[in-house]
Amino acid sequence: MEGKKGIDGAKEKPASTSFSLHWSQWQLIDSILPTGGFAHSFGIEAAIQARVILNPEDFQTYVIHVLENTGSLLLPYVYSAAMCPDLDNWRKLDRMLDATLTNEVSRKASVSQGSALMRVAAAVFTEIPSLKIMREMSLGSGIVAFHHAPVFGIVCGLLGMDSETSQRAYMFITMRDAFSAATRLNLVGPLGAAVLQHQVSIAAETMLKRWMNREVEDACQTAPLLDTLQGCHGYLFSRLFCS
């Protein structure tokens, strides 16, 4: 597998090849990785209190819109970062996404998860020195906000994952976290959530094929109601999640 570019733009030997790559990519999407994803509900908690979601059927429709929006808005950043995981490209993508996310709740959620992922990846994947160097060069600089999608793409690219696998992994963790939130909000039981997630995965694959391999200039939002609902999260009197 051909190496990705490091922080200086030079080719860097992939840290993980063959069997070790599979272990690394499985660990990256494992729910035990402490990146803070389970502290966020993608606006599901606000949607329940606003009575937009009343039952599992409503949730299924909602999560499909979440995945569609993820594909159209965030997959281009994952793709672009994974294809060129160097410091300059990461900083450019991060600034672009920071200007794109006008919803303060979703923006804070993205920064929180991205910061945690970069910290964890730098500590776990020590065979990739670029991760630690890029993080240390950006901490406290004010140049990088550490948005989640570009960080995820950078990590995938430096791990040696191909672009399609990287984008599918991002769709998966979005779906995983949404179903986890619905379970903890007692909207659906654990077994029901597993069955529903399996059914929704077919739609998720269709959306992946529709939105994958697009440049960031083509990024767009397809479900503005989701953005509105998530923005209302801060006004909830009682809440379990951060967003």
Structural account:
The protein is mostly helical and 243 residues long. Helix content is 63%, strand content 2%. The chain has helices at 19-28, 44-49, 56-73, 75-83, 87-100, 104-124, 129-138, 148-159, 163-184, 190-211, 224-231; strands spanning 4-5, 11-12. It has a two-stranded antiparallel ribbon with strand order 1-2. The longest helix is centred in the last third of the chain and has 22 residues, at 163-184. The radius of gyration is 17 Å and the shape is globular. The model has no long low-confidence stretch (mean pLDDT 88).
Radius of gyration, in Å, reads 17 Å
Secondary-structure-derived class: mainly alpha
**Mass-distribution shape:** globular
Indicate the low-confidence ranges by residue numbers: none
Report the total helices: 11
Kindly, what is the distance between the CA atoms of the first and last residues, rounded to a whole number of angstroms?
39 Å
What summary fits the major beta sheet? Answer: 2 strands, antiparallel
Q: Into which percentage range does the β-strand content fall?
A: under 5%
User: How many runs of DSSP E, i.e. beta strands?
Assistant: 2
